[in-house]
Design brief:
- This is Putative NADP-dependent mannitol dehydrogenase.
- This protein has 152 residues and is mainly α.
- The protein has one domain (2-90, 122-146): NAD(P)-binding Rossmann-like Domain (Rossmann fold, 3-Layer(aba) Sandwich), CATH 3.40.50.720.
- Helices cover 43% and strands 11% of the residues.
- The protein is built from four helices and three strands.
- It has a three-stranded parallel β-sheet, with helices on both faces.
- Strand 1, helix 2 (58-77) and strand 2 (83-89) form a beta-alpha-beta unit.
- The longest helix is centred in the N-terminal third of the chain and has 29 residues, at 7-35.
Length: 152
């Protein structure tokens, strides 16, 4: 629970996931403004849309919700020279969750309508679309790629 997470851990998650994204945007935005064009794609998470279960990860959820809103806000601020969007992956089989016990991982999969974790390669098309000229009329959007998890 949020009450039991140490201030250091809570701040570290927010520093890396939200503030790190903000600092990257600041540098990239200046470059885009100078060039007069650009497309910035932020990696958020389905966890920015939900309160995960059974794991309690308030700091992560808050940071990723912040990333989604950062993308929307920057899309408005940078409207004259760049597009900004975010992608919110669900559970993706990258190995980052291998430390989670098998029982919890089975529970997660049971909550995904497609019945499985996503594969990293399944995100590639979304990133390519948002970074390319195929999406020149797309800004401020968040693309959720989660096998249907958030529709339940």
């Amino acid at each position: 629970m949020a009450n039991y997470v140490t201030g250091f851990c809570r701040n570290k998650v927010i520093q890396v996931d939200l503030n790190g994204t903000f600092h990257c945007a600041k540098v990239v935005g200046a470059h885009f403004k100078e060039r007069g064009t650009g497309s910035f794609v932020i990696t958020a998470s389905m966890s920015g849309h939900i309160a995960n279960f059974p794991q309690e990860q308030t700091s992560y959820n808050v940071a990723k919700a912040g990333c989604i809103h950062l993308a929307r806000s920057l899309a408005n601020e940078w409207r004259d020279f760049a597009r900004v969007n975010s992608i919110s992956p669900g559970y993706i089989d990258t190995g980052l969750s291998d430390f989670v016990d098998e029982k919890t991982q089975k529970l997660w999969k049971s909550m995904i309508p497609m019945g499985r974790d996503g594969m990293a390669k399944e995100l590639k098309g979304a990133y390519m679309y948002l970074a390319s000229d195929a999406s020149t009329y797309t800004t401020g959007a968040d693309l959720v790629i989660d096998g249907g998890y958030t529709c339940r």
